[in-house]
Design brief:
InterPro entries: DNA_brk_join_enz, DUF6538, Integrase-like_cat_sf, Integrase_catalytic, Tyrosine_recombinase_XerCD. The chain has 512 residues and is of the alpha+beta class. The protein contains 20 helices and 7 strands. The chain folds into 3 domains: 2-204, no CATH class; 217-300, DNA polymerase, domain 1 (Orthogonal Bundle); 329-505, hpI Integrase, Chain A, CATH 1.10.443.10. The chain is elongated and about 110 Å long.
Length: 512
Amino acid sequence: MAVDNLKNIDGTWYVRVAIPKDVRSAFGNRTEFIKSLKTGRKSEALVLRTKDLHEFKNRIAVERRKLVIEQEMQTLASLPVDVKFDEMFQNLGEIKRRLMERKEDRKKAFQDSEFEDVQAVKEIDSHHSFLNLLAEEKEALGEDLHPALASILTELNEFQSQPSKTFKQSEGLLEKLENTLELGSFHGYAETHAEKEQVKTFIAEPTKFVKRHPLTEKNFVEFHKYEVKRKVTLRSIDRHVKRLNMLKSFLEKQKFELDYESVRVFLESLECADKTKLQYLCSYNAFYKFMFNNVDFRQKYPVNPFANHAVAKIRRGARKEDARKGFTKEQVKALYSNTISQEKTRLADLIRLGCYTGARIEEICQIKVEDLVEVDGVYCIDIKQSKTNAGERLVPIHSELLTLVKRLKAESKDGYLLKTNRGGKYGTKSKEMSSEFSAFKIALGYPKDLVFHSFRHTMVTELERADTKNILVMSIVGHEVGGSLSMTFDRYSDGPTPMAKKEAIEKVKFDI
């Protein structure tokens, strides 16, 4: 039974790849590559096959490129004398790029064959035969071989007479042959002195071959602009680009094309949780959707290489052991009491605001004095900056907060209710306060699943225990209405009144 490039033979799984007809001669007319994965478990075989699949496909691609190079060499030989220099120079660049790729393939073959440069020696023999034949033809015509070719023929004769041939010797000689014979033929198509110097310089300069892919700085810049227009936060955009650069470095280091298998190998190389890998794929899919607007990209990548990757997800409804939890009333009291005893006034104010609003820490730190408004006779905080549309809401000020809000308003010197830092690169004003709270609760021995966000969980729990309607709870903490209710409440309703929310929030009490 064969499936997913796998074949089960007597209980053992093998990886297999069919060899196309046009390159079978390069592999001894074999019809397929096949290799044992040494496992009887299909799930394990699906993972183990990746590296071999990539290697088999690369070997096929290498032979195909060799055929293309041979065809291009023949085409080059038949080019008319008046060929445009720009077109000729472009062909030179493409052939040089592919010669560098062949060099990378030889290096890999050298490492895989107990350090014998068999492939390079085979190519050198081919060049040697060609030059000997050319020398014989010239001699029959009573002509001399070109001095440059005669010199390199002498080197070839010396090389062939050596009993052992080192990797450095063979690669150095082969590079000289390529520059003299395959690339050197371009000199004849350059007319002016400037053109000849340009060709000479280009042939001589070292080139590090990198397989082409759309992960380029230019595309990253355009992607960044596009995401800014979509109102995506700078923090998220920078995170997208950082992940794209990681994939870019991986592809170039491994000499991989951008395809499904490459992405799979990259994901397996990441030492992080599956949840984090999903975030990487989210970034890559955002980039793919942006690039899909480009016609050339659509033609080259009609199938998304970032889609359908089997990354473990926690089933909806399954309990997560590391999920955030809410503080109990006793824990809230203990936290607040410790801030007072340790004279951490600002932290005490932050905790009090978090308890009685259920707001996110960044929402609290972004509150301005001008955001304290009276609506329908109810004193409220107008939260204008939130991570979701539903987060932009009016939160009635609990009676337990009135004294605190009045003091903070009078003390404000920068227009914000709480004095924090300027927010750094992304304008995140809560960064300093978040770090301070984290260090504080860790010092008191609280576990990692209790964070500042836990105050939101606590508020929701207390509202539910007070028999508050779900729509009121969502409206107070800024949760989106989901399911079939989203059409009714999001599109047609202005939401609960400030007075209704005020009556609900007053049911929540903490002994602080």
